[in-house]
Amino acid sequence: MAVEEPKFELIAQDGNYEIRLYAPVIIAETLVSGDMDAASGKGFRLIADYIFGNNTLAGAAAEKDSQKIAMTAPVILEPVAGSAKIAMTVPVTAEPLGAASDMSTATQWRIHFVMPAEYSMPALPKPNNEAVTLRQLPARTVAVLIYSGLNTVSQIQKKTAELDAWLQTKGIEQTGTPLLARYNPPWTLPMWRRNEIQVEIKTP
Fold it and tell me: CA-CA distance, 71 to 117, in Å (whole number)?
């Protein structure tokens, strides 16, 4: 079933590498602990619970007034810096924060879904679970490496290094940290999976 994806303007393309200008979006996000697989599953369930109806409509008189929100892709995983190094094995997108640029050093992850474009912040229902919050992201320019297959630790680090090397050859400055974006449900065959490493950059 087709799902909505964040809107962007394609600025440049070089094989599997792209430069995109994303429009502003609203995200629902949560912070979870654990290794990447465990955090991904837990975070997905928390936000899915919100969009499937564990929410309260804006201006509703009672908590029983809720609304289902359409699923979008990708799901984003963002590793949070400052925790012990772990072994690693989404779109889910993963981005190390702070000083960490190596996704294998994180034991906390911020997971988010982009909300459908039809919603403004005031129109979105309020999450009933305090672990889920809503936030507006501004327009941003992003470099992307698209690939298929399974996301093992070595694969993610390899693709992150490839994107970093490509940006260096183009003289493009990174302003963010790498994210891992996964667009497909877990039962999708590896050869058909769409994955991306994404990083925010200074507009060329």
Answer: 12
| CA distance linking residue 21 with residue 187, whole number of Å | 30
- In 43-88, the DSSP E strands lie at 55-56, 75-80
Residue pair 13/35 in contact by the 8 Å Cβ criterion: no
pLDDT tens per residue, range 14-37: 999 999 999 999 999 999 888 777
Place of tokens 């309020």: 126
3-state secondary structure of 115: coil
C-beta neighbour count of 13 within 10 angstroms: 12
For residue 74, is the peptide bond before it cis, meaning its omega torsion is within 30 degrees of 0? yes
Check residue 59 and give its pLDDT: 65
Residue 99: pLDDT band with limits 50, 70, 90: very low
Closest by Cα among 129, 105, 134, 112 to 31: 112
Asked if 113 and 70 count as a contact pair (C-beta separation under 8 A), the reply is no
Q: Which residues pair with 77 in a beta bridge?
A: 111, 180
Distance CA 79, CA 47 (A): 17
What is the sign of the dihedral through the CA atoms of 158, 159, 160 and 162? positive
Q: Model's pTM, two decimal places?
A: 0.81
Q: Which helix (H) or strand (E) holds 162?
A: helix 153-170
